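#structure-requests
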Amino acid sequence: MPVKDTHAMIAGMTPVLDPGDWVFCAVTGAGALPADAFAVIQEAEGTTLILPQATAQAGGYDSSPVMKKITLEVNSDLEGVGLTAAVATALAAQDIPCNVVAGYHHDHIFVPQGMAGAAYAALQTVQEAAQGA
């Protein structure tokens, strides 16, 4: 069952660091999408794909710097308020940029590869603080 309460979402977020390497790729025009794309986002300027780094390299896609994905295991309600703000605030306090992609069940946080350990630790700290409150 989706969690909507702000405190409960933060206390139960349970971040999981994915071992894979991910990149955001900008593409224009129609074409076959890679089967292992994590996300496909349609924008007026073109399409953004979030791909495993190896797929992007093999396909010759123009891509962003390498990112790591941290999945928040809490089944957050799409109408829940505050989880994204808590995550962004915690990471901003550590000067860590983040890109949040929300799925139906979970939120996924993409951070620069070299900052993944610090981001993961910051999110665990926020969760532990919420559990202790």
